[in-house]
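User: Structure tokens for both sequences below?

Assistant:
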Amino acid sequence: MSEAVMTGAGPAAAGVARGRIVALDLARAGALVAMAVFHFVFDLEMFGLVAQGTTMLPGWRWLAFLTAGSFLFLVGVGLWLGHGRGIRWRGYWRRLGRVAAAALVITAATWVVFPGAFVFFGILHSIAVASLLGLAFLRLPVVVLVVLGAVVIWLPQAARFEVFDAPWLWWTGLQAVGVRSVDFVPVFPWFGPVLFGIAVAKAMERAGLWARLAAWEAGPVARALAVPGRHSLLVYLVHQPVLISLVWLATFL
């Protein structure tokens, strides 16, 4: 059985029968499609096929924000489903190691392609750190998780602090200086959606919704559409090289 490494969601363990939840795979697949659409437009802009600054327009920026937020929300959901009734350390460290290794690959690749704006703390880095931090919040009540999530999102909008201006602290997202990177997803505010995901997953368990979703016998179309969500980390790693190659080929031809 393949594992949803990007969200930390293995077989459900929070009062749900073990096995994959197709609805979650579909949610991950939807987030991957949104990500690919944004990156495709980014690549078109990079090759000069659309106007410079297109991806900075409000609509495209919101798509990027909502897509990143959805991935991190699903990280929180996966943490609760996978470890809400007890942390399964072996599977946890295996998934975390894969995400961390993939994050290092992204850093190395973007260092070569975008040396002045390489990814030093992008979505995969954020998922890895959130997977660690999230364990400390699994036992908190739903209301507390929602309040903390809102505070995490609000704080960097309300105040920045010069004490975090050292480059080695930029991952917090609380620095007062600007940061140049093609993908920057710091802990503040992006740990907020993770806390929301944990809260929603706990509330859904209390309502018995996870058991219903686990029992859903998805048809062949739904299962086919869910395939990318079952291999989200692999899709994330290969989609940009494929898109860039296609755009380059179209430009060349």
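Moving on to the next sequence.
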Amino acid sequence: MEGLLKLKRRHFNVLASALCALAAAGSSGFTHAQATASADPLILVVGDSLSAEYGLKRGTGWVALLDERLKQEKVRARVVNASISGDTTSGGRSRIAPLLKQHQPALVVIELGGNDALRGLPLNMTRENLATMARLSREAGAKVLLLGMEMPPNYGAKYGQEFREVFTTVAKAEKTALVPFFLKGVADTKDPTALFQADRIHPNESAQATMRDNVWPELRRLLAAR
């Protein structure tokens, strides 16, 4: 009986050792896979309805198309879309610190400012908010891509010029990359309503690829420079 108990104990110890080794190997493999995924640079998009797929079928907006382009081009990067319809630069400024802490992005795309103008908010406030977002992002170790906007002609040439300069001024002061006009090829066509939804404010699904393509060259350059 004693010999049988020793034999069972020895078999148990061998089995336990094998299970521990298997568990350790499995754990190491899982951890490595996680580490590989988390090592891919993360692109954080902080925007308004233009980036939040307002009025569009989910998965058809320019941010989703950007994610598809990254996969097609075999660029190792992940995209997190933190855009909120109706958001202003003040909203973005209040959200940026926790977003940076949560996602630890390698690149932050800031697409805000249009709603500030539509609400008649002071341009110096818009400029300060964008500059703060860019600075906090850089201090967190992220590169920054600012997407510029322009106002329709009915806002007046002077205001249009001043609004345009908000983005160029911030980009220069904070040393960020800039897409001068995010809606180039969408809002400045011969028929400015053709690529917009019925509200004439939000680009339709047909415009999203153009918007993605406006962002892609600068974004690709920033990723390649890491």
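User: Anything stand out in the second?

Assistant: The radius of gyration is 25 Å.
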